Amino acid sequence: MKQILVALLLGLLLFSSGCIQPKEAPVVAEKAATEVWKADGIVGASEYSRSMLLQSPTRHGYSGGDMEVSWKNDQEYLYLALNGSTEGWLAIGFEPLEWMKNADIILASVNGSKATVRDEYCTGNYGPHVDDTLLGGTNDILEFGGSKGAGRTVIELKRKLDTGDRSDKAFSPGQAISIIWALSDNPDISLKHNVAYGEGIMTLS
Ligand code: HEM
């Protein structure tokens, strides 16, 4: 009886510590994207056709946080918004092989009203991730903008589904894209994520 009670207590402690989290896929909200897309750092109510809230608990080395990802696409372009609970850097990575390796990364921050959005690629399990241009590729973020305030950073950007750059993953309409994401409370991109990290699936229309 005593052993059962101890096991129950340990289970409860692990659960409340965030080490065991219920693994439920985030709900993807869908609507008609009737608003004109603008990279102004404001996610309009009808600017994107799909959105989901990714969350990550407080755990060792991480304060915990969330990032709302909103997106829409046509036959040629992907339009993306990231709204993360940080005033440091935020990032999304497409189709890693495992951990962070071979992820096509977009890493962004906002300083005042100026957004910086990097088109990067991660070559190792836990970095390094470098600008595509340093790997012989090109910067394929066609338009971008952002805003920051009250503990959140918003980035909006546009890229081609298939950029033709081998440091970018090529997408096609209807595709389910595996993603990773991460947030840091520091805008210095050489510093590791310390707010949140996680994974998800983003399905194109
Ligand atoms: C500043 C550069 C970065 C460094 C030095 C770094 C380093 C690391 C390290 C050491 C881990 C192992 C877990 C831990 O120690 O907490 C990790 C895990 C992870 N990182 Fe990064 N990272 C960086 C940037 C990024 C970016 C930009 C993303 C998202 C696009 C990202 C996404 C992830 C994810 C999702 C994991 C968990 C992988 C897993 O366990 O499945 N990281 N990173």
Please tell me about this protein's structure.
The protein is mainly beta and 205 residues long. 8% of the residues lie in helices and 40% in strands. The protein has one domain (24-203): Immunoglobulin-like (Sandwich), CATH 2.60.40. The strands form 2 sheets. It has a 6-stranded antiparallel sheet, with no helix packed on it. A 6-stranded antiparallel sheet has the order 8-7-6-5-11-12, with no helix packed on it. Strand 6 (104-111) and strand 7 (114-122) form a beta hairpin. The model is unreliable at 11-22 (pLDDT under 50). Protoporphyrin IX containing FE is lined by residues 61, 91-93, 99-100, 103, 105, 107, 126-127, 129, 180-182, 189-193, 197-199.
